[in-house]
Structure formats: structure tokens, C-alpha cells
From TrEMBL:
Its EC number is 2.6.1.16. Its main location: cytoplasm. One of its GO terms (biological process) is protein N-linked glycosylation. The active site is at K360. The keyword Transferase applies. The chain holds residues 245 to 609 of 609 of the full protein. GO terms for molecular function: carbohydrate derivative binding; glutamine-fructose-6-phosphate transaminase (isomerizing) activity. This is Glutamine--fructose-6-phosphate aminotransferase [isomerizing]. GO terms for cellular component: cytosol. It comes from Caldithrix abyssi DSM 13497. The gene is glmS.
Length: 365
């Protein structure tokens, strides 16, 4: 049921404070700064000693996987590859003895992701799942895994599953990291920050009317560019995918610094650019990318942290989000991009819950 919302997608966007909480529920031991994941209990040691983690997924789940790469490499110091399942399955991939495969899938039925995990299993890898649909094929065929507990996702555009997948990846990261390089204090700190995410998502959702107004300014554009760095690079990809799949506007996501290597040629007054420019070590670099866009008459929408007033000098429009540690930023920075895509699609008269040519779960190649 849509519970008074005009579309399932909007309902699911607004559910995120709860669904992120549901992913964490019962899994956090705050005092010890530890995470408990029943579904991984038997493979914890193997995870800790993994030589490499290979994440296989498609679409939005692949974007969550990219964030997983940043998390697992930074905090667990385990090398991670993120593979499109469709490419991995046919590439005769190299699997070494201590490699672990993690398949990420909302539906648990995506044909390519399933085939990739079967291929990895066949070559002897331990195969884990991060899945929403309980009892789905991927959940059944993996050796172990984590359910994200986001509840049924009806809108074809994945929203709440994404934030729950990222939350699950944060939990897995802390689970492993605490056995290796992460102290109890660091574990506690990250878990405290994680537990504040739902209330912070709520604050962003409260800006829905403002984001709708922004959509009114931009909905007739034909192209969009999304740029972000670090943990926000996958968010740029996800923001662009949301827009293109439901509004049919051509949109591309890039790591902000790649702009100079090609996309900058596209920039003029008809190429709005969405920057994710939250406060972190590479903030200044993102600001100079913004200036480069402005110098070429591009219109700039920025997702920035509350209190960052200097950004208003550079951007045409700013959407403010609360500050959180950089590793958790995607859980907040993606929310305004989901809303922006939603409102633009509605203003264009598109069927947001059932976009043309798309199926909720892609069970054929
Ligand atoms: O069910 P899955 O997570 O395996 O689905 C993967 C993709 O098909 C899916 O994320 C798709 O890209 C969405 N429509 C994105 O919103």
C-alpha cells in the first residue's frame, strides 16, 4: 500500500529512516563497539583472513558495492574488486584460494548476479550474499549472508534497498575491522554515527518541498552531469542512474576529477551539474571543479554540509545535509538525489513506479 503517498517510490524514499534502522536492528553491541551478524557467524574467520573480496552486482546494487570497496579497503585493508556481474560471469575470472565473493542484490533473482555467484562458487570461492528478498534464489545459493530487512521494494527505481545495502556493508566492515585494525573507541564512534543516520535522513526528507522547487527549475533540461569524489563518487553514479531511469533525461555520473578528461567539453548553460561537495579532505578539490564548471556557464546544484555557507558563492543552488563521518556520507548524500530525480520525473509526467522498458527484477540476461 502507498500509505497516502502518490507513488511507491516516494513512499520508499520516506521509509528510509525506518529501513536503515531495520538493517541495524539487533546487530549492534554498542559498548564493545562490535557488530553481530548471525548470518555470517560461521564465516567470520574466513572474512578476516580474506586475501581479496570480489563484489558482484548490477545497477544500483553495483553502486552500493563500490561504496563497499571504499569501506572495506579503508577500514579492513582487504583488497576489493567490484565487478559487473554480467562481465564477471563470462570472463573466466581468476579466483584465488582466500578470495571471497559477495553478491549484492535487492531481489535476489537478478540473472547475471546469480550466474556470477554460481561461477565463483564453481571455482571454489566462498560466496556470500547481501540480499533483501528473503528466501530468494541468491539467498539460497550463497554459503552465508546478511539480509538487509528493508521490506518489499515495489518502485522499479531502487531507493531504500540501496541505503540498506550500504548500511549492511558498513556493518560488515566494522565486523571485520574490529578484529583487525579498528579499536573499540573507533568502533563505538562509527556505530554512534551510524545510529544517528536515521534522524539525519529525516532532516533531509523535511526539505522535500525545497527539492521539488528545484526540480521545477530544472525539469525541462535534456542532460545532467553528476560529480562526486571518494565515497561520493558512487553516489554521483547512483544519482545519475535514478534520474535517467525514471525521467528519461540523459545523465552521467563521474568522479569529479575525471571531468577534465572529457566531460568538461559538454559543459555550457544547458548542462546542469550536480556536485556532491561534503566536507572532507578533498572538499577544496571539489570546489575548484565547481569553479571550472561555473567558468563555462554551467549551472551548479550542490549537495553540501549544513553550515557550509561559502559554497553559496560557487553554486546556483545548494541542498544542505547534516554532517556525518565521510564513510557514512553516502547514506545522506544520496537522499536529495533520489528526491530530485523523483520530482523531475513527476513534473515530466513519467510513470515513476513503472518506467518504460524496465523490470523490477531482471531475471533474463
Ligand atoms: O535486484 P537487484 O538488486 O539485483 O537489481 C539490480 C538492478 O537491476 C537494479 O538495481 C536496477 O539497476 C534498478 N532499477 C536501479 O534503480
Amino acid at each position: 500500500e502507498k500509505q497516502g503517498f502518490e507513488h511507491y517510490m516516494l513512499k520508499e524514499i520516506f521509509e528510509q529512516p525506518k529501513t536503515i534502522m531495520d538493517t541495524m536492528r539487533g546487530r549492534i553491541l554498542r559498548e564493545e563497539g562490535l557488530v553481530k551478524l548471525g548470518g555470517l557467524a560461521e564465516v567470520e574467520d574466513k572474512l578476516m583472513h580474506a586475501g581479496r573480496i570480489i563484489i558482484v552486482a548490477s545497477g544500483t546494487s553495483w553502486h552500493a558495492g563500490l561504496i563497499g570497496e571504499y569501506l572495506l579497503e579503508e577500514f579492513c585493508r582487504i583488497p576489493v574488486e567490484v565487478e559487473y556481474a554480467s562481465e564477471f560471469r563470462y570472463r573466466n575470472p581468476i579466483i584465488n584460494e582466500n578470495d571471497i565473493i559477495i553478491a549484492i542484490s535487492q531481489s535476489g533473482e537478478t540473472a547475471d548476479t546469480l550466474a556470477a555467484l554460481r561461477e565463483g562458487k564453481h571455482k571454489g570461492a566462498l560466496v556470500l550474499g547481501i540480499v533483501n528478498a528473503v528466501g530468494s534464489t541468491i539467498a539460497r545459493e550463497t554459503h552465508a549472508g546478511v539480509y538487509i530487512h528493508a521490506g518489499p521494494e515495489i518502485g522499479v527505481a531502487s531507493t531504500k534497498a540501496f541505503t540498506s545495502q550500504v548500511t549492511a556493508l558498513v556493518l560488515i566492515t566494522i565486523l571485520i575491522a574490529r578484529k583487525k585494525y579498528m579499536s573499540v573507541v573507533q568502533g563505538k564512534q562509527m556505530l554512534d554515527d551510524l545510529q544517528k543516520i536515521p534522524a539525519n535522513v529525516e532532516k533531509i526528507l523535511a526539505q522535500n518541498d525545497y527539492i521539488r522547487e528545484l526540480a521545477e527549475t530544472y525539469y525541462s533540461q535534456r542532460n545532467f552531469l553528476y560529480l562526486g569524489r571518494g565515497y561520493n563518487f558512487p553516489v554521483a553514479l547512483e544519482g545519475a542512474l535514478k534520474l535517467k531511469e525514471i525521467s528519461y533525461i540523459h545523465a552521467e555520473g563521474y568522479p569529479a576529477a575525471e571531468m577534465k578528461h572529457g566531460p568538461i567539453a559538454l559543459i555550457d548553460e544547458n548542462m546542469p551539474v550536480v556536485f556532491i561537495a561534503t566536507q572532507d579532505a578533498i572538499y577544496d578539490k571539489v570546489i575548484s571543479n565547481i569553479q571550472e564548471v561555473k567558468a563555462r556557464k554551467g549551472r551548479v546544484i550542490c549537495v553540501a554540509n549544513e553550515g557550509d555557507e561559502q559554497i553559496e558563492k560557487h553554486a546556483d543552488h545548494v541542498i544542505y545535509i547534516p554532517y556525518t563521518c565521510k564513510a557514512l556520507t553516502p547514506l545522506l548524500s544520496v537522499i536529495p538525489l533520489q528526491l530530485l530525480a523523483y520530482h523531475i520525473a513527476v513534473l515530466r509526467g513519467c510513470d515513476v513506479d513503472q518506467p518504460r522498458n524496465l523490470a523490477k527484477s531482471v531475471t533474463v540476461e
